[in-house]
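Q: What structure does this chain adopt?
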Amino acid sequence: MFSRPLLILLCLILLGGNVATLTWSAATAGLSGVLGAAGINTVYQRMQSRQQAQARQLAAVEAREATLRKTVQDTGKRIQKRTVRSAAANIGSLPAEAIPYLGWAVVVGVTGYELMLACDNLRDLQDLYREMDAGEVAAPEAMQAICEPGLKSFSEAWDQVPESLAEEYAEFQSWALNAAASGTMPPLAPEE
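A:
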């Protein structure tokens, strides 16, 4: 039916086609296109579809990563600025804290300012963790203790001062009102 030379030529063409499709991607794509046009689904076509789907997934992951990187950088910058402001307020308030009477107001004011900055830092970290699906950075109780501290009135706080400290403060207050102008030394705590 077929002559021997024709069979040899046909085998060589098929062998050459196999080698070409295994070593040359253009031949693989061309043969896959011809078979695809005939309605035959090839491994090459499935691999191309899978590769395109993976490329789309990779692009989505890279876009999410870029968004998270920007969020982390922005949050870090805000926390850094607040930390610098807190340290500056703390260091800058040291001389004023030594002033009688006014010092207490400075301590309370700076502490309130630092609590506000700490609360803002915790809120930023909460937002960052939520954005990254990483859970909570602080327990709700800690957030409430820092962001909504139950501050007492002056009279409530004064009632908790030990009696000996209250007596020493009253003595100092008396000195400040009467004897400070005369240049006398303030009363010292008794040595034990």
